[in-house]
Design goal:
The protein has 13 helices and ten strands. With 257 residues, it is an alpha/beta fold. The chain has an eight-stranded parallel beta barrel with strand order 1-4-5-6-7-8-9-10, surrounded by five helices. A two-stranded antiparallel ribbon has the order 2-3. The longest helix is centred in the first third of the chain and has 13 residues.
C-alpha cells in the first residue's frame, strides 16, 4: 500500500456523512481571489504561495508546535501572494482550526491543502473562509470528477488548484477545464522528488492557465529552474524548518521579493 493509498483510506473514514452533515450550512461570500493573486504579468517576479506545514510523511515532524498565525503574518508581510494551509491531521499534523486561524488574521487568499475526496470537504473549506482548495488528479482520477469538484468549488466562490504529476494527469486536468494547474515534483508512490522534470511538464500547460510549481523547491537554483515556466511557486518545508524569525531571510534568498 503506497502512502497515498493509506492517506485516501484514512480520508474515507473521516468524510463519511460529511456532506450530509453540512448540507444546510450557509458559507459567506469570498472576497479574496486566489486566481487573481497568482496572475503574473510580464516582467514580474514569480508569485509565492507560502505553505504552513507542521509535518509530512517524507520529512516527519517539521514544526509541530508552530504558531500558524505568526507564520501566516510573516508570509503576508514578506510578499507572499497567497498562503497554503495543510489541514490533514493524521499525516501532516494540520487542522481546520489552523486554516480558520490564519484566514482570520491575514488579508491575502488562503488555500485549503488536503486530500479532497468528497464535496463536503470543499464546503468545509468555504465555511472556514478559504479562497481555494487543492484538487489532486492522482486522487480524483477522472476528468468528470475533477470537473464536478472544481465547478462545485466555483459555485461556492472559490478557486481550485488542480495538481498533476505527469503528462497523463496534465491531459486529464486540461480536459476537466482547470483554470489553475500545479505540477508536483514529488511522486506520491514513493515520495521521491525530481525538480528537473517540472519545467517540461509545465510547458505542456497552455499559457492562459495559471501554472504553479509545487514541492522540492529549496534553493534559488530551484526557483530559477522553474520560474520561467510558471506563474507561482508553492514552498513550505524550506520556510517551516527552523526559527520563524528566519523566514524573511529565506524568502529574500529564494525569491528576491
Amino acid at each position: 500500500m503506497t502512502i497515498l493509498e493509506k492517506i485516501i483510506a484514512q480520508k474515507e473514514r473521516e468524510v463519511s456523512g460529511l456532506e450530509r452533515t453540512l448540507k444546510n450550512a450557509k458559507p459567506l461570500k469570498n472576497h479574496r481571489s486566489f486566481l487573481q493573486a497568482l496572475k503574473r504579468n510580464k516582467g514580474e517576479a514569480v508569485k509565492l504561495i507560502a505553505e504552513i506545514k507542521k509535518a509530512s510523511p517524507s520529512k516527519g515532524a517539521i514544526a509541530p508546535e508552530a504558531d500558524v498565525v505568526e507564520i501566516g503574518l510573516i508570509y503576508e508581510e514578506n510578499g507572499a501572494a497567497a498562503i497554503s494551509v495543510l489541514t490533514d491531521y493524521e499525516f501532516f499534523q494540520g487542522s481546520l482550526s489552523d486554516l480558520n486561524n490564519v484566514v482570520r488574521e491575514v488579508e491575502i487568499p488562503v488555500l485549503r491543502k488536503d486530500f479532497i475526496i468528497d464535496k463536503g470537504q470543499i464546503l468545509e473549506a468555504r465555511l472556514s473562509e478559504a479562497s481555494a482548495v487543492l484538487l489532486m488528479t492522482s486522487v480524483l482520477k477522472t476528468t468528470e470528477k475533477l470537473k464536478e469538484f472544481r465547478e462545485y468549488a466555483e459555485s461556492l466562490g472559490m478557486d481550485a488548484l488542480v495538481e498533476t504529476q505527469d503528462e497523463a494527469e496534465i491531459q486529464i486536468a486540461l480536459a476537466s477545464g482547470a483554470k489553475i494547474m500545479g505540477v508536483n515534483a514529488r511522486h506520491f508512490s514513493d515520495l521521491s522528488v525530481d525538480i528537473k522534470r517540472v519545467p517540461p511538464l509545465l510547458q505542456l500547460i497552455p499559457n492562459n492557465i495559471i501554472k504553479v510549481a509545487e514541492s522540492g523547491i529549496s534553493t534559488k537554483a530551484d526557483v530559477d529552474l522553474v520560474s520561467p515556466y510558471c506563474d507561482a511557486v508553492l514552498i513550505g518545508s524550506s520556510f517551516m524548518s527552523g526559527d520563524p524569525r528566519t523566514i524573511k531571510a529565506k524568502i529574500d534568498a529564494l525569491l528576491c521579493i
